[in-house]
Amino acid sequence: MPKKEKSYQEALSQLEAIVHSIENETLDVDVLSEKVKTALDLIAFCKTKLRHTEDTLRQAFDEE
Amino acid sequence: MTHLRLAELNHLIKETLDKQLEPTYWVVAEVGEMRQNSSGHCYLELVEKEGSQVSAKIKATIWCYTYQKLSRWFAAITGEELRAGMKILSHVEVKFHELYGLSLNVKDIDANFTLGERGRRRQEVIRQLIADGVMDMNKSLPLPAVPQQIAVISSPTAAGYGDFIDQLQNNRYGYSFGVHLFKAAMQGREAAESIITAMHEVYRVADQAIQPFDLLVIIRGGGTQVDLDCFDAYELASHVAQFPLPVVTGIGHERDETVVDMVAHTKMKTPTAVAEFLIGGMQQYEAQVEDYGSRIFRFAEQVVREKTYQLDSLQAQLKYAVSTQLGKSDQQLLRLKENMKQAVRLRLQTRQQQCEQLHTALKNGALSQLDKARTRLDTTARYLDLLSPEHVLRRGYTMTYVNGKPLATQQKVATGDTVTTVGRQQTLTSIVTSMEPRENA
């Protein structure tokens, strides 16, 4: 069983949390840059995952 | 015994029927078997059922020309082809042929009756689904954040399936989909059962898939209007309603939605529209991600701008504060210098005054001491003067020396010693003749 990948929903929730904390809390600049970096990673992850999937257009029953 | 030939009997039957029956009747019946021969004539059976038992049956014919006109009209109104199992209201002429026997000649069919009939059956199915409590079950499932792993039930050869795959593969955003086809017959008598079997298969495979399915898509060929009744069937609708994944339909038809469409999570008109819906779902997700991203970066930029501004202003403040402080210190120094100068000057003045006072005091003191000393000296001098031998002599006293030494110091004086007596006017010289000690000496 391969390690379970982060789900889209998790990624979205994390981004949402970052948006919330950035927009509603006063953050230290160091924390802020850490969060921005995390956000960048999450966005890159989502964009990549949307365009690459392991078993694209597999015809489930054609192999039988 | 009189008898008839068969032909005569049949002729009699024919005559009797012609005489006794109206030229035409409107008859309600269900279409039993039905086929079209090579010349385009349609041969069918009309039946009536009580439950599952056939209680009446008769052959019927729709002649080629009538059939062409009728079937087109029928399909246009009902959205379906005339086929077995349909309840119809037909306008018939009873015919008896000596050779072929009894049959009905169908002259017309009231499509609106069938529409109403089907509507009634549909309502029954819907009522049942509501009574089962499953009508909105599939709709209440949340759509996945991203519809990427798609289970598809379709006929693999259907044009609609090809369109669907094409649309997904060539989407303009470059999204990647995992499509898993589960084959099923999408029309004909076995369609409903075949689709249900495929759904069980999806459920079974979903358990073992590397990536779980996000959605189940049910699509159908499209093209000509064909049998859609299976999508109104209770069993299939019930399965779709209770399926654990959201179901999206693209059954491809012009008429009112089928019951399966009604219970599915989302109903699309065509397979292509389903593909667009899926692509739209991914797009929406990506847009959301991008929106969050731009909010984060916009805000971060703003914070950096603010911080830079703060730093600049702090720097300016610092500069100002330093220069002010320096200015102040300069002034303070100046003031201190001035103060010190004044203090020194004051102190010097004081000291000088003190010096002068001391000087004066010293001078005065010394002078008065001198005066005093002089006075004392004068007094002493005067006193001494009074005591001087001259002065004493002047007052009548004399000084006596024995043998050149003052008498006072001379202890032993003998007779015959020379005595010198000094007076004011003269000095006398005498010889000692006698001596007597003085009393009280």
Describe this structure in words.
- The complex is a heterodimer of chains A (64) and B (441).
- Chain A has 64 residues and is mainly α.
- Chain A has helices spanning 8-24, 29-51.
- Chain B has helices spanning 6-20, 64-78, 111-132, 159-169, 191-208, 234-242, 259-263, 271-387, 389-394; strands spanning 25-36, 42-50, 53-62, 87-97, 101-109, 149-154, 178-183, 215-219, 247-250, 266-268, 399-402, 405-406, 418-422, 427-431.
- In chain B, strands 1-2-3-5-4 form a 5-stranded mixed beta barrel. Chain B has a 5-stranded parallel sheet with strand order 7-6-8-9-10.
- In chain B, helix 4 (159-169) links the parallel strand 6 (149-154) and strand 7.
- In chain B, helix 4 packs parallel to helix 8 and helix 5 runs parallel beside helix 6.
- Chain B is rod-shaped and about 260 Å long.
- Classes of the chains: A mainly alpha (64), B alpha/beta (441).
- At the A-B interface, helix 1 and helix 2 of A face helix 4, strand 7 and helix 8 of B.
Radius of gyration of chain B: 76 Å
Number of helical runs of chain B? 9
> DSSP helix count of chain A?
2
Mean pLDDT metric of chain A:
77
* String of helices and strands of chain A: HH
Largest sheet of chain B: 5 strands, mixed, barrel
Strand content bin of chain B: 15-25%
The N- to C-terminal Cα distance of chain A equals 23 Å
Q: What summary fits the major beta sheet of chain A?
A: none
- Cα-atom radius of gyration of chain A: 17 Å
Q: Care to count the β-strands of chain B?
A: 14
User: What is the chain-wise order of helices and strands of chain B?
Assistant: HEEEHEEHEHEHEHEHEHHEEEE
Percent of sequence in beta strands of chain A? under 5%
* Topology, number of strands of chain A: 0
Structural class of chain A: mainly alpha
Net shape of chain B: rod-shaped
Strand order of the largest sheet of chain B: 1-2-3-5-4
Oligomer class: heterodimer
Low-pLDDT segments, ≥5 res of chain A: 56-64
- Summarize model confidence as the mean pLDDT of chain B: 88
Give the CA-CA distance, first to last residue of chain B: 243 Å
